[in-house]
Amino acid sequence: MSQRRTAHDDVRAAVEAYVSAVSAADPKAVRAAFRADAHMWGYLGEQFVSAPIEAFSEVVAADEDAPRWSRDYTYSIRAVEVSGDVAVAVLDEYGYQGHDFTNHFSLVRQDGAWLIASKTFLRRDPERSATATTGAADAGTEPGDQTAD
């Protein structure tokens, strides 16, 4: 097996850095995983959210329950696709702040480093999950493939 690190591995490592940052409730590390001009969009239940990534790092900073929920937090990087210096990744989170999320990240390689440029997400509340379907859910993806350290 080759010891050469691929762009796919580097993108995966960038997503892992995000996971480590949020599971440690470390806003500085969250900001480091993203481009400074990154933005996020998504749904918290029925509530639509559109905000600069700095707003998300403030949510992470305010999280005083991380020691409680992070013990049960797991995740799965479901997909990574790289096209030159741009990439996409899909991250499923189980138990982040007591909720399950699907995150779609767009990443760019700048000066040799992969950074998240945008995040779109969906909090999968039980009542919403019952009516929502995704191709990956039908593909047999199992929760809890990995746990955060």
Note the total helix count: 6
Ends distance: 26 Å
Mean pLDDT, to the nearest integer, reads 84
The backbone outline, from C-alpha atoms, is: globular
Q: Which oligomeric form is depicted?
A: single chain
Specify the structural class. Answer: alpha+beta
* Main beta sheet: 7 strands, mixed
The topology string of helices and strands comes to HHEEHHEEEEHHE
Overall number of strands: 7
Summarize the amount of helix as a percent range. 25-40%
- Determine the strand fraction and express it as a percent band: 35-45%
Cross-sheet strand order for the largest sheet: 2-1-6-5-4-3-7
- Unreliable residue runs: 128-149
What does the radius of gyration come to? 15 Å
How are the elements arranged and paired?
Elements: H1 7-23, H2 27-33, E1 34-44, E2 47-52, H3 53-62, H4 66-69, E3 74-83, E4 86-96, E5 99-110, E6 113-123, H5 126-129, H6 135-138, E7 146-147
Parallel strand pairs: 1-6
Antiparallel strand pairs: 1-2, 3-4, 3-7, 4-5, 5-6
Helix pairs in contact: 1-2, 2-3
Written description of the protein model:
The protein is α+β, with helices and mostly antiparallel strands and 149 residues long. A seven-stranded mixed β-sheet has the order 2-1-6-5-4-3-7. It is globular and about 35 Å long. It has helices at 7-23, 27-33, 53-62, 66-69, 126-129, 135-138; strands at residues 34-44, 47-52, 74-83, 86-96, 99-110, 113-123, 146-147. The protein has six helices and seven strands, in the order ααββααββββααβ. Mean pLDDT is 84; it is low at 128-149.
